[in-house]
Amino acid sequence: MSKLIFVIYFPGRKQNIGGHVVLHKLAKILCDLGVEVWVTQKPMFQCNAKIVDTEKINLVRKDRKVDARGYKLVALYPETIKGNPLKIENVVRWILYHPIPDIEKTWDATDEYFYFIKGFNTQRETNNRMLSIIDPKLDIFYNLGLGKERKGYCHINKKKYPAGETLLSELGSRDLSNFMDLGGFEYLATEMNKYEYFVTYDDATFYSIAAAMCGCRSIIINTDTRMTAEEYRNKFGYSMYGVAYGWHDIKHADMTRDMVRDFMKRSEKHSVHNVEQLIKFWEKKLAV
User: Fold this and answer.
1) Distance of CA 148 to CAs 172, 211, 243, Å?
2) Is 45:28 a contact under the CB 8 Å cutoff?
3) Could you please report the per-residue DSSP string of 215-269?
4) CATH number of the domain enclosing 37
5) 35 near 272, Cβ under 8 Å?
6) For the whole model, what pTM was predicted?
7) Domain of 63?
8) How many CA atoms lie within 13 A of 227 on its CB side?
């Protein structure tokens, strides 16, 4: 049994925010692997993680390195968190999106960075350690086989761009951004099955993959013209299949859409391996 305790800082538990989902999924996988986990609020997935009050974290020894049994503590924060609110010496910064420079400046030079995917940029040169976890919701997002009944465009507008707002309006695209208020992921999957196209400006959103699993022609627009579609796929690996990086890349999305589900199945299984590598890294670093 590992002599580590991972203390995961949850900034929230909204099911439609990818960063929240994977943080909670990490807690579950660690628990399933027999590692002790403390969390700052109720886990989204059922597991035996212990909820701890951040104001009472000093229940451990004053140096906050070990608990009374001699277990070593490792705090894990997403990239949105300033400083070290848990005041634990051993820290993981899980880079789930591009960090804000003013926030990154509050981190300690000894903090260890782990990246969700290659495409997120930080101010520090690192060893590019990867911690990729996916919750693909395969039982919800699938193609109902409506074929030619599909028409038009749909989108989820999380990141607004002025030029993009005009384009979405010209396309007559249906905004599905409020899907959580209308029935959650099941509602979203049903609606995605009605449309031929799903468009987004977010090059790192799970919804482009979910749309592809539902049979949409999934397109990421407003991409960096200095990067090729293949370079995008290398940096944002979960969109390897079924997703077009720009209108010119639609052939790739069409030809690989049937490969998305199997790829997601493999990726979900590989998530466990990635968490095992996180554990091994800290066991070696802390000699436990």
Assistant:
1) 19, 16, 20
2) yes
3) T-EEEE-S--TTS-HHHHHHHSGGGSSSEEESGGGHHHHHHHGGGHHHHHHHHHH
4) 3.40.50
5) no
6) 0.90
7) 4-133
8) 16
Please write the tens of the pLDDT for every residue from 180-218: 999 999 999 999 999 999 999 888 889 999 999 999 999
DSSP state at residue 3: -
**Among all chains, which residue has been given the structure tokens 């069409």?**
254
Reported as a single tens digit per residue, the pLDDT across 48-101 is 999 987 766 655 555 666 776 888 999 999 999 999 999 899 999 999 998 999
Count the domains in the chain: 2
* Whether residues 108 and 190 fall in one domain: no
Residue 189 tokens read as 């999957």
CA distances from 190 to 121, 133, 215, 239, 245 (A): 35, 25, 11, 21, 24
- Cα torsion for 195, 262, 238, 129, to the nearest 10°? 160
Q: For residues 142 and 144, what is the distance between their CA atoms, to the nearest angstrom?
A: 6
Q: Tell me how far apart the alpha carbons of residues 33 and 162 are, in angstroms, rounded to a whole number.
A: 46
Only one residue has tokens 């030619």, namely 148
pLDDT tens digit string along 33-62? 999 999 999 999 999 999 987 766 655 555
Q: What residues are paired with 197 via a beta bridge?
A: 153, 217
